[in-house]
Amino acid sequence: MCAENQENIDSRPKILPTDDYMMAGRESGRDFAKTSMDFLTYGLEDRDIDKTRDFLQTFFDSCRKNDENRENEIVKLKNMIQKFGGINSLSGNWEDLAAETLILGADSMFTINVALSQTVAGKYILTFSPFEILEKNSGHYENPIFAEAFKKYIGGLMKLLDLEMSKDDVRDIFEFERRLANITRNGMIGGKLTTLGEFKTNQTQINWTKILKKVSVDKLPDHQTQINLTNPYYFEMLNCKIKEVKPATIKNAIIWRLITTFSQVLPSKFEEPLNELRKTMKSNAKFENRNEFCYKQVTTHLPMVSASDFIPTYISDESRSNISEIYNNLKTVLKSRIQKSSWMDQETQKKALHKLETMKLRIGFPESLLDKEKTLRPYEKLKLSNNSFLENVWQVRKVNYELEILKLTEKSDDFIDWPTVVHSVNAYYHLHTNQVVLAVSMLRNPLFNADLPKFFQYGALGAFIAHEITHGFDTQGASFDEFGNLKNWWKPATYQKFVEKSQCFIDQANSTVEPRTTKNFDGLQTLGENIADSGGVQIAFEAFMAKMRESGEKKLKLEGYEGFSDEKMFFMSYAHASCDHMESHKVSKRLKTDQHLFGEARLNNALKNFPKFAKVFGCKPENQMVLEKEEVCEIW
């Protein structure tokens, strides 16, 4: 921010958007999670009369056992491995094993799940994806030092389980993993829609009929069932490569994946092989403490059940009403901006306005979450035990997979992925339903407080919501219509102008330097978020100013900030809510993968594109926050 011309700041230190002491925003989710974790750690009340609480507490407590009490989990896992034929088994086939472990949550070579169709709104389809690479940087598999360390990791875990495996067997598992990593890395970005029948016909080396029968989707008509391949190249190459690998090696690799998936459930000595691998790769990653790990297990495996117990108490009807008003005011501003846009033709403008009018807001959680008994019902027949977290997880995962598959045939008018939303610290624009979704954790301090002045409400949560609304009209949102269908609703000439305006954001981000690495951001990678950042803060500011003019309410001040105008407080609230903190060792990776700018770059670029900011803070022409008119990027 510019320090010039601030009223009555005395000796108070200037407030910068990235000052650590201003940290807030998504960090508030940690407090939200900690509160609910503490409930479980210290024991939920009334569990003797509340089935939901008893179920959650049993699941959580079974996870928190000490090392001595977790020894029996080793036996459980080894028994499961024996059920699959054990190491180096030549009996049975690997397809059965892959399907069984898939249901248990261990993705051996691929995952099969259910997701919303990219082309037909409100329709779920099967989605096939590559396996998750254990080492996120797939290039490391070609590094001899990493290769040796990874083999030690494989062998170390096997040895702790007393599973006999030769060096050649370990090498074969690593080579198989390396091959899969390479075809994952080299695969196409973007999915491919095909039919189940065509997929099976092309996949001659893999018995997909057997696999799909095991995961209960064998009754779908082959030639009428549409599926999505998230990485078609991967599956094409998997079909070619699989015949070059011994069946025993494939089964060993699948069992290895099963072990890595559940190793943290075992006694803490099973963490050592991974710690050694991390040391070799100079990674600062650490295991969570047991309570944090177990809390995440609860929210990951039982997201809706755990949410039903405490989330509805976090938001009042008054807050919902207040947030809905903010949302509608933001839409009114964007409507006006679209109507005034000189670069859009009338027909495209009309369709954009219709999409905006149709856009809905979903706050916090679905109404069904208020019925705790109904939320628990799918798990009622499970017999959870305090003695084995592993068995509890396996039981729950099987039910969750069944619920996932049911989406293919059950009718529903709610297509929000609520299990992901309810425990997140985020807001979302949902492309396939044209809805803005707010997680409950966003609806409290420091992002929202109904008792604080309007500059806080609009500068913090208001700007977040406006950001998500703008996503409906960024480079990705522009490809979906008001119903969430993938459809071109633009006149060619207008879309070309949209592309040209987008190029400004690309160039601006490309020339922005991340200070800790001194490397430039990727403008194309961050394009959608930069459009939403820029539009979001401007829409929120206009809505705030309109609200102040309309209400004529007495201007409230925050103690210690009486000398700042409401306009300045809006921008300071925006900066406060947007700040985050990142450990230095994560910066380089985030620069390569994050779709957002981060640190001061994210705030500064959005505010540079809003001349009103420089005017409010009295920035001089030579200040970095002041751009020439032709340098300002703006679409919405």
Automatic annotation (TrEMBL):
One of its GO terms (molecular function) is metal ion binding. Keywords: Hydrolase, Metal-binding, Metalloprotease, Protease, Zinc. SUPFAM superfamilies: Metalloproteases ('zincins'), catalytic domain. It comes from the Eukaryota. GO terms for cellular component: plasma membrane. Residues 55-366 form the Peptidase M13 N-terminal domain. GO terms for biological process: protein processing. Its cofactor is Zn(2+). The keyword Hydrolase applies. PROSITE patterns: NEPRILYSIN (PS51885). Residues 426-631 form the Peptidase M13 C-terminal domain. Belongs to the peptidase M13 family. This is Peptidase M13 C-terminal domain-containing protein. The lineage of its organism: Eukaryota, Metazoa, Ecdysozoa, Nematoda, Chromadorea.
